[in-house]
Amino acid sequence: MFSFMASNASHRIFSGNRGQIGLKPASLLLFFAFLLLFVYLPTSESQATFDDPRIYINKDVADLGEPFSLSWHEPYAEQVWLFYRYEEEDFQSLSTVDASCDGYTLSKTRPGKWSFLIMVKYHDDIHQSNEVSVYVKSGGRGKAKSDLNLYTNRAFLKPGQRFALSWYEEDSGASYIHLWRRRADGDYEYVAGFDKKTMDGYGIVPRRIDLGEWYYCLTADCNGVQRQSNEIKVTVSDSAGETNNIWNILFVIYERADVGNFHKTFSEKQISEIYYYADNIKYTMEGITGGRMRIGTVEVVRISEPITSVSGDNGKGFRALTYGPGGDADFSDLLATRDIQCVVVYAPISYLEGTEGWYGLSPFTIENGGTPCRAMIINNVDLKRTYYTMDGVSYSIQIGIIVHEMLHLVEDNSRANGWSGFESLHSASENGYPNKNNENGDYPWHRDLTRDQLKNGKDGFHKESFYIRHK
């Protein structure tokens, strides 16, 4: 738990602010021009060297929670920034991205029009791309809204392991059903055709060359109308079902809370800051642990449906969320299709009665298809001060909260793996690491504890403390 009282036992993150850009598209060029130390005013000849950047989107309509992809190809760019906006709001900075991308995948849980563009830096010249949009339809989050529905019995497997696809379309009007597949960065290829309207398990056995993410869908002529099903993602991985020190992290942001007479909402600026913390958590955790903990994928999902109840507790008198079907926060559909070891839940419930005194709570365990997923909750993004310095980089208390709670998850994971002889995360002072609230903060304590190098010779985490099971 990261509490007011225990705030001297926290951690860090890059100081800084992803921030809300708050500029109209036409103003973005001017905004970036002021960021440059030397402004290069190209001649018409130099402008002709580069075409205007282009961004592409793979669909113009999507269901709530349904993935869509953005692509661009700017191999000569020095830097590329991705921006988004909702409806007619101002554009916001989403992320700094690779110069070329064949599929930057997003999903949205707020219905309406979402627009995207990129800003590209060539030498000292900034170019703005075209704008692309997707309309997100209202409806159940994460559920396909089509006349065809495709199902699978497993989403993660090793080469040589069989999985099955099923469909039940007796009432759809389909006369003949076609199965397609594609790689994450590729086009659809035809697999097979079926005159069966019901298929209880079309078996597929991937080979070694099939490693990676695959997407499957159905198409059919339904009473004269061409229909396409939802997409099913299947991941073929050598590490499927294995235990290693790689943690995939999912950030789940509940944008608002409506609990009785309590109403609170994260601002767009606060949400953009959470994206910033997610961008830097890999460097943070791998740096502190000296590579003992490895961070794999990091994904951020926003949920517009509010938190309407806070019915759990952490066993120490603090109110907390319950998770899963029937709980205060149910994002089990997100976990079902992902190999996730850690969930960072943000919910704006600070100052709700019973939550006073803490910023972050952990550990919580959420079952994810038979694989335990470790979780934390953070209720506040208002704290702003540098907490400590690592390798010459200053980190804010906000990332310190994430680190603190993540190390609680490591404690819990270590006990599950059979090693509980380490010094407690909350025993810094007892082990000669007083938090003086200066630029070093808790960094020496976290570093030595996670690397098993405590200066008093006592035990810290073992390498096995970081090993966790994958789907």
Account of the protein in words:
- The chain has 471 residues and is mainly beta.
- The protein folds into 3 domains: 2-14 and 240-469, Collagenase (Catalytic Domain) (3-Layer(aba) Sandwich), CATH 3.40.390; 36-136, Immunoglobulin-like; 151-229, Immunoglobulin-like, CATH 2.60.40.10.
- The protein contains 6 helices and 32 strands.
- The strands form 9 sheets. A 6-stranded mixed sheet has the order 1-28-29-27-21-24.
- Helix 3 crosses helix 5.
- It is globular and about 75 Å long.
How widely separated are the two ends? 27 Å
Main structural class: mainly beta
For this structure, the CATH topology of the largest domain is: Collagenase (Catalytic Domain)
Mean pLDDT: 77
In angstroms, what is the radius of gyration? 24 Å
